[in-house]
Amino acid sequence: MAKTEQHQSQSDTDGSLPLELLADDKRGGWITFPFITGNMLFLGIGTFGAFGNLIVYLIEKFNVKSIDATQINNIINGCSNLAPVAGAIISDSYFGCFSVISFSSFVSLLGMILLTLTATIHSLRPPLCTSGSQTCEPPSRTQVAILYSGITLVSIGLGGTRFTTATMGANQFNKPKDRNSFFNWFYFTLYVSFIAATTGIVYIQDNVGWGLGFGLCAASNAIGLAVFVVGRRYYHLNVPEGSPFMGLARVAIAAVRKRMEATSMDGKDYYHGHDELTKWPPTAPTTTLSFFNCAALKTEGDTHLDGTIAKPWRLCTVQQVEDMKTLIRIFPLWSTAIFVSTPIGILSSLTILQVLSMDRHFGPHFSIPASSFLVFVLFATAISLSLIDRFLFPMWRKLTGRYPTPLQRIGVGHIFNITSMALAALLESRRLHVVKSHNLVHQPTAMVPMSAMWLVPALVLMGIGEAFHFPGGVALYYQEFPTSLRSTSTAMMAVIIGIGFYLSTAVVDLVRKVTNWLPDNINEGRIDNVYWMLAVVGVVNYGYYLLCAWLYKYQNVDKGGTDSSSNS
């Protein structure tokens, strides 16, 4: 902001713009798209190839029990999705998107090299164990330390790239229509990388070798880093101005300290910054959440003679107060998304266990790897994103005169999520019926004579829901969050996913303690009851979402949602 104001004042005095600003104005736009999405594509192939088959790797190579492996996988997914918060804060506050993405890409590369070593050096793994044996040797502390060091580095790298890349890409565009189109194509690229990883990489890991599979992940990561760095000359780079969270903390503390002060409706009584002429005529803070307004109320001794703040923890700008209010207003909507991510985490993990017990043949000679079944979610999401961007949105605009709002898109995602849980419950009931009719209840290693393709419809519905929910959420947070928190806004979806995976772990633990639905032998359990429970929770959560959406009023998005004509 300071640089922009300085450039503005210079242009006012001499009628010209600095060469630095002129050069920066020529940057950005769709020319940056191949470099930013190329980075996301190759990094996605690497990271999702490393994590996509992790449950099977833990079971087959590190002798971890099946349910325990899904729990470990959920925790890892939670960590890798919470890490973007740290990356976003660092990006917004100190180093900017480009530096954070470059460094994080390098860190994830180191992690993949460690995972490759665990797969290629026999001493870094426990001895092989026969499936179902009770005498399997667990991994040593050294083996576990190396394995989790690699996983941690990949998680950190993933955290610093995935949603920070979304922010950097959106920063290249000025028009909301272009940004929303970028978000759709960003997610499309993300899911294409999922598909490539969970088909090609996973197949190589299962059928050729884990060392080669992880090695290809590392190579893909290196290519992604190189592509991103090569495009630096074209990027519009935003300069961070210090931690915006410090300003928010000052608002809370100043409001508490001045809670007894009488507020005013006159904008002149509030602090807008040391150069208040730029805010003329000054306006008072909004009346909603008025408790925080006193944080910007000027009292004796709060400012110096030149208008700068004398007591930072007693006075804030009106803009900082409004930024705090924006975050508080959007929190209820954000919380509803957590209970969408939780069922997704549980369904993704338990589906792999279901597939391992079923006939995975596709044709007479080809057997689909268990982890690759999640590719149907990715296919559904990628195809849906293309159809939504190219057909559904334009059709919606022709019928209504505007694009669907982010809240409408999120709401549709909720409905598909609930439907997928209900269908998954019905399909698992069918699987258990086949298990009982063939007397396989007490035979955990026996293959159930039922095609695993029966599970695909539920996965497809979940993928369609993700195509509506996640891009809609990113678009909402990016446009509604304060400008100083743009990277943090896109990382909020990662936080939701991370918390969802942690909650899925907690839910599975709770279900195991109070019911007999999830034993190690799933043929003796009732996974269908778990899915029905999630469907009911989804319905309740959808009602909560509708209430929050009805009460919410857009702050930075026009009532027309994403209509470019109204927002340009």
CATH superfamily of the largest domain: MFS general substrate transporter like domains
Q: Termini, distance in Å?
A: 21 Å
- Biggest sheet: strands, sense, closure? 2 strands, parallel
CATH topology name of the largest domain: Growth Hormone, Chain: A
Query: Can you tell me the residue ranges where pLDDT is under 50 for at least 5 consecutive residues?
Result: 1-23, 558-568
Instruction: Give the integer mean of the pLDDT values.
Output: 82
Strand order of the largest sheet: 1-2
Structural class: mainly alpha
Helices and strands, in order, run as: HHHHHHHHHHEHHEHHHH
State the helicity in percent bands.
55-70%
* Gyration radius, in Å: 26 Å
Per CATH, the architecture of the largest domain is: Up-down Bundle
Helix count equals 16
CATH class of the largest domain: Mainly Alpha
Description:
The protein is mainly alpha-helical. It folds into three domains: 27-129 and 136-239, Growth Hormone, Chain: A (Up-down Bundle); 244-322, no CATH class; 330-557, MFS general substrate transporter like domains (Growth Hormone, Chain: A), CATH 1.20.1250.20. The chain has 16 helices and two strands. The chain has helices at 2-14, 19-25, 33-52, 54-61, 66-120, 141-170, 176-207, 210-230, 244-257, 318-356, 375-400, 406-437, 456-480, 486-514, 527-551, 564-567; strands spanning 358-359, 448-451. A two-stranded parallel sheet has the order 1-2. Helix 7 (176-207) packs antiparallel against helix 13 and helix 10 runs parallel beside helix 12. The radius of gyration is 26 Å and the shape is globular. The two termini are 21 Å apart. The model is unreliable at 1-23 and 558-568 (pLDDT under 50).
